[in-house]
Amino acid sequence: TPAMRSELAQQIPPAVLDMHAHWLPLRLAVYQREMAKSMQPKVGRNDPCPCGSGAKFKKCCGAAADLH
């Protein structure tokens, strides 16, 4: 009915605000983590590995799928 449609339409804005508030902490955490990653200097292939092994990055963590 038109009355039900109008009532449901009025419930949408507060529901959207509630959803935004619910997911905001997660979005901020992801954003901060990505910013922290991008702020780290890039390790060159021939630089010492940041894991502290003393080996070149390309022979240590640079050869692996991800850093340890």
Automatic annotation (TrEMBL):
This is YecA family protein.
